[in-house]
Specification:
Length: 276
C-alpha cells in the first residue's frame, strides 16, 4: 500500500518541475501566457496612445487588452511598453501606409491603388478629398474581391463608423458592428449580394431588419427599416429592392445600418464595399 501511495507524490513533483521549466522558458523568451492561449500580435505603446485607441485600431475589445496584459489601471501604460493584443492581426492584413508626395492628389492615389476616393476619405478621417499635404501618411485599405454592392443607390454618406463609439441613445461606449449611412425615410434599400432571406421582421435595437445569407459564409444585415419588401426563405438577386429605409428601433434619425458577417462574425464592411 505504501508503494502505491508515495508514487503519485513523485509524479506530482515531476509535473511541477516541468510546469516551472515551461513557465521560465516563456518568460525568458519574452512571451506571455496570453500569447500561448490565443492568437494576436505584440504592440509597443506610442506617444498619446490609450488602451481605448489601441482597441479601436485593431478592432478588439478594450477589456481583452486589459486582461491579457493584467493591467489594473490604464495610467500604468507608458511609451515603449509592450502589450499583447489578443485576436488582432498585423496592419498589413488590412492595407498599407503611403506617404503623400508633392503633386499627389487623392484621386491619383486612389486610381494607382485601385480603390475609391470615398474609401480613402473615410479610412483616414479626412474632411474632404482636398485635405492632403506633402509628406502626410495615409492608410490604403485592402478591398476584398467579394463583389458586394452598395446597399443604396444614392451618394453614401457615413454617419457612424465600425468600431467603438459613444452610443447615441444609450450614452455609453459600445462597439458598433456596422456602418450607418444617411438616408431619408423611404429610400430604397438593395440586396448587396444575391442570397437567401434567413430572417426579417422586428428585433430590439435594429427595429425592422433583414438578414441575407450569401455563399462563402457571408451574411449582410440591413437595420432600422421602414418597410420590408421580402419574406423569410425568399431568394433575392444582387441589386433587388428588399426594403425602404426608416427610423425604427433604437435610432435617433432616419438612416440605414449595414453589417457584413463572415462565418458568423462581424467584419468591417469598408473592406468589402466599393463606396464609389
Amino acid at each position: 500500500m505504501c508503494q502505491y501511495q508515495t508514487q503519485p507524490l513523485k509524479d506530482s513533483s515531476a509535473l511541477s518541475i516541468v510546469i516551472a521549466v515551461v513557465f521560465v522558458s516563456l518568460v525568458a523568451t519574452g512571451q506571455s501566457i496570453a500569447s500561448v492561449k490565443t492568437s494576436g500580435i505584440w504592440y509597443h505603446v506610442r506617444k498619446g496612445d490609450t488602451v481605448w485607441d489601441i482597441a479601436r485600431k485593431y478592432k478588439v475589445s478594450h477589456n481583452s487588452i486589459l486582461k491579457a496584459n493584467r493591467i489594473q489601471s490604464e495610467k500604468r501604460i507608458h511609451i515603449g511598453k509592450k502589450l499583447f493584443i489578443p485576436g488582432a492581426f498585423p496592419e498589413h492584413k488590412y492595407g498599407t501606409w503611403y506617404r503623400v508626395k508633392h503633386g499627389d492628389t487623392l484621386s491619383r492615389i486612389a486610381v494607382n491603388h485601385g480603390i475609391p476616393v470615398s474609401n480613402l476619405v473615410w479610412r483616414n478621417r479626412l474632411k474632404s478629398a482636398d485635405q492632403l499635404q506633402a509628406n502626410q501618411k495615409i492608410f490604403i485599405p485592402n478591398l476584398h474581391p467579394s463583389s458586394f454592392a452598395p446597399p443604396m443607390r444614392i451618394k453614401l454618406v457615413l454617419t457612424s463608423d465600425y468600431g467603438y463609439r459613444r452610443h447615441p441613445t444609450l450614452k455609453k461606449r459600445m462597439f458598433h458592428y456596422g456602418l450607418d449611412f444617411r438616408a431619408r425615410k423611404g429610400t430604397r434599400v438593395y440586396a448587396s449580394k444575391s442570397g437567401k432571406i434567413v430572417r426579417s421582421g422586428w428585433r430590439s435595437g435594429y427595429g425592422n431588419y433583414v438578414l441575407i445569407k450569401h455563399v462563402g459564409g457571408f451574411e449582410t444585415l440591413y437595420g432600422h427599416l421602414y418597410i420590408i419588401r421580402v419574406k423569410n426563405e425568399q431568394y433575392v438577386k444582387k441589386g433587388q429592392v428588399i426594403a425602404l429605409s426608416g427610423n425604427t428601433g433604437r435610432s435617433t434619425g432616419p438612416h440605414l445600418h449595414f453589417e457584413i458577417r463572415k462565418n458568423g462574425k462581424n467584419v468591417n464592411p469598408i473592406h468589402y464595399l466599393n463606396l464609389r
